[in-house]
Amino acid sequence: MSDILASAGVNAGVSADLDAGVHVLDRAAWASLTGPHAHFALGSGRARRYPADVSPFAAVPPVQDEAVWADLHALVGPGATVLLAGDLATPPPGWTVVAQLDGVQLVATAALTTAPDFGAVRLGAADVPEMLDLVARTKPGPLEPGTYRLGNYVGVRHDGALVAMAGERMHPPGWTEISAVCTDPGHRGKGLGTRLVRAVAHGIRERGETPFLHAAADNVGAIRLYESLGFARRRTLPFTVLRSPSAPSA
Hints:
Elements: H1 2-7, H2 28-33, E1 48-49, E2 58-59, H3 66-76, E3 81-85, E4 96-108, E5 121-122, H4 128-138, E6 154-158, E7 161-168, E8 175-183, H5 192-206, E9 210-216, H6 220-229, E10 231-243
Parallel strand pairs: 8-9
Antiparallel strand pairs: 1-2, 3-10, 4-9, 4-10, 5-6, 6-7, 7-8
């Protein structure tokens, strides 16, 4: 496994925004919002977030001290929910863990075959209602009306209707996440998801970057599919929904 991960670039350099010894993918949202996606970032100090209509993710650095939690509270406001990816210290009093999901992070290896898909269409603003509908029916993970702005989203249409899609989400330096991989239940078993993953990965590699993705740890079928395509498990990664402390009473 170590040889596979090395071929995927997993031991590549660490982002300057991260503490020494922390891989950029361990804090992918933070590395994105302080790097290639800085133009989307809201906040300052030691907390960032995407606009709510783009992505629900917020981000903090690897070490969370009192200043980090204070900056995050100032950013999201009182009594707000926020989604964070990666290991977290125990939140200070007043913060509530609403939900936590274990995910598996996978990275592309040399075994992943990629190719453009000339049967796929580029998705944009005009396609958002159909994209949201497809996600609501297939539940691959969060998608907001402006998520398509984060990168390349492509889909397959059948009789004019959108039946499969995949796209790009987080963008830490040197890497791009493949996300929102989903297929209408009536069109599964045709290899549409595989086609689109390979097509999105092809564009990522053309930029000189490495694809990676996440799957719920209990989604054994999806993980098995990604591994068969040439992705390797890197680590288990927690996704945590927190509620910020309420405003102090007058």
